């Protein structure tokens, strides 16, 4: 259900007018998912000789985040890849407006941004029911767009990936496959346009069973420009290189075997990433031992572990 919706491949090719509404935060996962949907629902059918009309939208929600860098990155993505960018302000998802600041999320300023995230636990950067709220808003907006374009197929795109809830990683419950399936069903059941048989809605979550490094590999193979993305939890001029999100990004690029295009912009680079950069460079120069270390680092990173660390570290 997740990848192509409960209508399957036949619907993907048969509906000639479609609206793609991608939830884009400006990070790796959501931008690459938007590009994936564009290719799957628009470009692939055209290559097969089917004349489809696609209306592409990238939507960014402002819900009380402590910085605007991710929205700026989403705008850059939309401009580069042919999406109309929508920015929607919703009521802040922050507990401080209820006088309950300690009950909220680090992303909305209720708590400090953590330097580490505990595997198997819901992290401080989880925003309570955020994805439920954002997808409900997206469903409403999508239905308006389906009416405006008289389109049958509506596709909501999300960038959830396996490491959002995998063993050994911090857990975001509202990114799991069963959550996506339930939301897709609810959006169709609650849609007036679907009820009247004029539309169908798909929640396209292409990465929900894939790790982040595989997203990066797919993106590189399909001309995704990661230099325009923003991952850092902090909102400075440069990514910090120390928050859990930055560290996960750097580890994922090692797992993909590709240097992060933002490498030179980080305020701080961890020693293990610097070591990998050095080994990667000297490997290209012909150093066999460096090549072995680079390959080993990639294997370790793909297991979800930090490379180059000794057991005591």
Produce the secondary structure layout.
Layout: H1 8-14, E1 17-23, H2 28-47, E2 53-62, H3 69-81, E3 84-89, H4 130-149, E4 153-157, H5 177-189, H6 192-195, E5 200-204, H7 212-221, H8 244-256, H9 271-284, H10 288-302
Parallel strand pairs: 1-2, 1-4, 2-3, 4-5
Helix pairs in contact: 2-7, 7-8, 8-10, 9-10
CATH topology title of the largest domain:
Rossmann fold
Helix content: 40-55%
Number of strands: 5
Looking at the overall shape, the CATH architecture of the largest domain is 3-Layer(aba) Sandwich
Number of helices: 10
| Major β-sheet profile | 5 strands, parallel
Structural class: alpha/beta
Which shape, going by the Cα principal axes?
A: globular
CATH superfamily of the largest domain: HUPs
